[in-house]
Design a protein that fits this description.
about 230 residues; 3-stranded antiparallel sheet; globular; mainly alpha
Length: about 230
């Protein structure tokens, strides 16, 4: 595994991450997180119907926050809702994966290109710390969240809030497909190596090299996912 890039500015001791706030999430956010986690882990399979009554009982919630969670998960591409038949886990398809990752590649390269000249030394430190943290993660779902934190840390200085919002949505859409790759392919170590390569290019302000590496990072992942869906 690559070591942290050595041309970053010095920093004081302490993590770049602040500790999670102690505030409890809303009931809707709690339900969204739990159902999303169950889908990502494969506890609820594609095409399976989500039984609102049993889920509400298991989570200790009323139906209102659960319905709100369903609408959120529908917007993220995790489930589909039929007014008469109910909510179902969305199927994974080759066409959907190709569209999501094509959009990701285009938008993320544009965001990175705009961000690189504006990234502060402190922002580079945050990206570096996230990458260090990800090296020690072996839990697939947790890695997915830290993976997104790393990418977003590189794009944050682009000053394009609409672009970042679209990318965030696409990452949520892509997360189920990325889990396929993590479960069936020796993915984590390779992904981390590519992250370190991208970060090194960004820290040198080598925009063309960083964007080239990022595009390959997304495109290759997409091709592997499509191959898995065909198998």
């Amino acid at each position: 595994m690559r070591k942290p890039v050595n041309n970053l500015p010095p920093r004081e001791l302490g993590s770049a991450f602040s500790q999670a706030e102690a505030a409890h999430p809303t009931a809707s956010a709690f339900a969204t997180e739990r159902v999303r986690e169950a889908i990502l882990n494969g506890d609820i399979q594609p095409g399976q119907r989500l039984q609102q009554h049993s889920l509400a009982a298991r989570l200790g919630l009323s139906h209102v926050p659960l319905r709100e969670a369903f609408f959120r998960l529908q917007s993220e591409g995790f489930i589909t809702i039929n007014p008469r038949r109910g909510a179902f886990v969305a199927q994974l398809t080759k066409a959907d994966a190709e569209e999501i990752f094509e959009l990701r590649a285009n938008l993320e390269v544009a965001a990175l290109r705009a961000s690189i000249p504006k990234l502060s030394p402190e922002q580079l430190i945050v990206a570096n710390d996230i990458c260090v943290s990800a090296d020690a993660i072996h839990d697939y779902a947790k890695y997915g969240e830290v993976n997104w934190q790393f990418h977003r840390a590189l794009y944050i200085a682009c000053q394009r809030p609409r672009t970042l919002c679209l990318i965030d949505t696409l990452w949520r859409n892509a997360s189920r497909y990325s889990m396929l790759l993590r479960h069936r392919d020796p993915y984590l170590q390779k992904s981390q190596q590519e992250h370190w390569d991208i970060l090194e290019a960004v820290s040198r302000r080598s925009s063309e090299q960083a964007c080239k590496l990022l595009k390959a990072h997304v495109v290759v992942a997409s091709k592997r996912i499509v191959a898995l869906l065909k198998s």
